[in-house]
Amino acid sequence: MSITLEQLNSASHAQAAQLLVGLYEHSPWIAEKALNARPFLSLAHLKHAMTQVLREAGKDAQISLIQAHPELAGKAMVSQSLTAESTNEQSTAGLTHCTPQEFAALQKLNTDYKLKFGFPFILAVRGARGTGLSRQQIISAFERRLQNHPELELQECLRNIHRIVEIRLNDKFNAAPLLGNAIWDWHEALAQFSDPGYLEKGQLTVTYLTDAHRACAAFISQTMRECGFDEVKIDAVGNVVGIYKAQQADAKTLLTGSHYDTVRNGGKYDGRLGIFLPMACVRELQRQGKRLPFHIEVVGFAEEEGQRYKATFLGSGALVGDFKPEWLDQKDADGVSMREAMAQAGLQLADIPAIKRDPGAYLGFVEVHIEQGPVLNELDLPLGIVSSINGSVRYLCEITGVASHAGTTPMNRRKDAASAAAELALYIEKRAARDGDSVGTMGMLQVPNGSINVVPGRCLFSLDLRAPLDAQRDALATDVLAELKAICERRGVQHTLELTDRAAAAPSAPPWQKRWEQAVQPLGLPLQRMPSGAGHDAMKLHKIMPQAMLFVRGQNSGISHNPLESTTSDDIQLATEAFARLLAQLGAERQ
Ligand SMILES: [Zn+2]
Hints:
Blueprint: H1 5-10, H2 13-19, H3 29-34, H4 43-57, H5 59-67, H6 75-78, H7 84-92, H8 100-117, H9 135-145, H10 150-173, H11 178-190, H12 211-227, E1 231-234, E2 240-244, E3 253-259, H13 273-287, E4 295-301, H14 314-319, H15 338-344, E5 362-370, H16 375-379, E6 383-389, E7 391-400, E8 404-405, H17 417-435, E9 439-441, E10 445-446, E11 454-455, E12 458-467, H18 470-491, E13 494-503, E14 506-507, H19 510-520, E15 529-532, H20 537-541, E16 547-552, H21 569-590
Parallel strand pairs: 3-4, 3-5, 5-16, 6-15
Antiparallel strand pairs: 1-2, 2-4, 6-14, 6-16, 7-12, 7-13, 8-11, 9-12, 10-12
Bound molecules: zinc ion (ZN).
């Protein structure tokens, strides 16, 4: 018998607590306390209320909760004394069928882990899709997390407990995330295609116009057709474009999408989520026989990451007239020019200018993207509303001091170029932190031809400064450069600066940001407005039409550009429902 939210909301406190029994291992108090937040507008609301109860309960209570869990494949499993829920989870993951070697490896990990952290290792073994991790995945997650800092690992255990509860709750409410699962499976299917040299190692790399890249375009096109798009084509730069037509032919178009290329050894969701998610929404509209008062155009951008050629945002850039003909003569690592690669892929160079969109035909651009950062994961929130894509400015710098003997030069007579750079690095940390949402990084730092016994005479370094608003970024840059000057004067060293890149911030268009907020609001969760630290295709479309983005929480501290990038089918489901609400609302506005 499954429960409904209405039942839970209208039951007495005691009855409601009874309905939620068995969620947190031997710890019914969490669900009981969360009931004070009734009525719940959604299951996500209930889940979030429970995370808040545990957050507020403090560290001792959190550790007791972790202690209440059995070890993975531990004594309790062997002696069959687990709770029914745990037995089910551990056997779904195949832990009850470990080989003797796997079993021994897990016992050793259990011991080492307990010794380091003092509590048992908690992993939601049903995984991001709810269908169960493989024993190998479990063992590698265990090995990886054993290296974590204790504070981070405590939080990681709690997040895994919340994930275990999320799946238990879905079972109780018979609320499988069906759309989220379908979209999750498309990501798996697309991840089969990977460039040579990476495929063999089980790594995902899809760079511009390789065979794997073209196989991805074919897969996306085919899936779009199956979803019921009216027109599907691959354009002159390799973008996959699907159109689901409006009731009226002369209607305007909502543009959405993201990129399907990846970085080297990247994650499965970066970019691709923003293509598949609206595709699932179109499939639902088609199944319901619904047409909206605007066309929906979903674009899978062919190139965003700039990996094979230095042509970042090539795909979305082509839509705003930013395709640069000089790119065509660039050669990849094997000496193949972009022109040759495009010809080989059957793309028509002459058609590129025609890809440029007429802003007058469009309502705006929306993009869904995995967050690629830790914020939502730390807040236990599935969705975030992007307020702005950060503007950035980059410099390459050189400080010149005097290389002198490390043994004979007294500390007060040195002109140490590296120490000057180090002083600036520490200043940047403090100065960027002061803004709250600015970031500053010295990502490259070297002493050319340095020696262990020589005071550094030269130091080369990079600066990458970003902020949600151009004025804020400029203020940050002004302060950092002034500090650089002051440090150099005080230390008697020289410096040079080369501006290598400046990208304008792309603040979300207020009405579109509002639409995302209204689409997320019915979940009953706090609205998390946040800047995007990373660049996205939306930055390009920003040049010609209003845009706004929605972020989806990433697992594993939100890691991205990494094979550990992950998001759950539950979070994908919530984002899909939000997208569907945005479509419905936009439809209502345009009636
Ligand atoms: Zn991306």
